[in-house]
Amino acid sequence: MKLGIVTGIPGVGKTTVLNTIKEILTKNNAKFIIMNYGDYMLKTAIELKYVNNRDEIRKLPLNLQRELQLEAARNIFRDASSLGDGLSFLDTHAVVRTPGGYLPGLPKHIIEILQPQVIFLIESEPEQILKRQSNDKTRSRTDYSDPSVIKETMDFARFSAMASAVLVGASVKVVKNVEGDPAVAANQIISSL
After folding, report:
1. 35-62: buried (b, 16+ CB within 10 Å) or exposed (e) per residue?
2. Does the reported pTM lie above 0.70?
3. Residue 10, annotated as binding a ligand
4. Superfamily name with CATH number, domain 2-192
5. CB within 8 Å of 61: residues ≥ 6 apart
6. What pLDDT, in 10s, does the model give residues 46-73?
């Protein structure tokens, strides 16, 4: 199993880059899967009646977020393992900004289940992230609406990604999401995995 964890703060363009990865690998008839940690967590959270939508997850008490993280990790590993030697990509966050502080997205008990080869940090300038957020009317990201908060969150994401990587011997790669050309980041991620 080859697993790359693709991280980045809300609005950095992870979904666009991952969609581009999907297009590239589909054209090349590659065997791959793209999973979203939030989708796995949301499915369980809705079943347990904890939330009604995705953006409410990061506002849950930390103990419930941890419970959802663990269940998601187990299901993600199962799905990635079922692909055999194909490429697996996991869309998630290295950190989650919560009312109680920064929650590691890939703490010890999670990263040891997932066993990634690479943790990717997709980054952009804070002002560009704000612009992308304002253009996305499908999500509510008011808690990331200040450039200094975005910068701080990206710094914590770097620290967290490296700490997680140390636990499983993964590498960490910073990938810049070039405005207007997500194929640059997509190709860097594919070639690194």
Report:
1. bbbbebbbebbeeeebbeebbebbebee
2. yes
3. yes
4. P-loop containing nucleotide triphosphate hydrolases (3.40.50.300)
5. 100
6. 999 999 998 898 789 989 988 998 999 9
The reply to whether 14 sits in an annotated binding site is yes
What burial class does residue 166 get, using C-beta atoms within 10 Å of its C-beta: 0-12 exposed, 13-18 middle, 19+ buried? exposed
Among 118, 126, 120, 124, residue whose Cα is nearest residue 174: 120
Residue 141: predicted pLDDT = 52
Parallel, antiparallel, or unpaired: how do β-strands 87-92 and 2-7 relate? Answer: parallel
Is 104 known to sit in a ligand binding site? Answer: no
Mean pLDDT of 32-56: 93
Residue 11 labeled ligand binder:
yes
The answer to the question of whether 16 is labelled as a binding residue is: yes
Break the chain down into helix, strand, coil percent, rounded to 5. 55, 20, 25
Q: Which of 112, 44, 70 is closest to 54 using CA atoms?
A: 44
Contact predicate 82/76, CB 8 Å = no
149 is in an annotated binding site: no
